[in-house]
Design goal:
4-stranded antiparallel β-sheet, 97 residues, single chain, Alpha-Beta Plaits, alpha+beta
Length: 97
């Protein structure tokens, strides 16, 4: 399993649109083949700091999703609400406790 973490910084003027844009974007993410789940974490001290947790069945599924997002068909409105570029890390699940 692959876990991708996407750190977002929402522009202050876009906070009112963030829920709508994130919902639309992440519903598409969740529908992609190989996606096992998506969680949205909102920083309690700073609502403009959001972490998206995506779980993928394989690196190939994650790669296919990222490639799709780079197309006109897969492009989302996420960039319109961000104050800075997102930070992405893609992680292997190495062990469970």
């Amino acid at each position: 399993m692959i876990t991708a973490l996407l750190e977002l910084r929402i522009a202050p003027e876009s906070l009112s649109d963030a829920t709508r844009v994130l919902t639309e974007t992440l519903q598409q993410t969740r529908a992609r083949e190989g996606n096992l789940g998506v969680d949205v974490l909102v920083d309690r001290a700073d609502a403009a700091h959001i972490t998206i947790v995506e779980r993928w069945e394989s690196i190939e599924a994650d790669d296919a999703y990222r490639a799709w997002r780079a197309t006109d068909e897969g492009k989302s409105q996420l960039g319109t609400i961000l104050a800075a570029p997102p930070a992405l890390s893609v992680n292997d699940t190495s062990f469970s406790l």
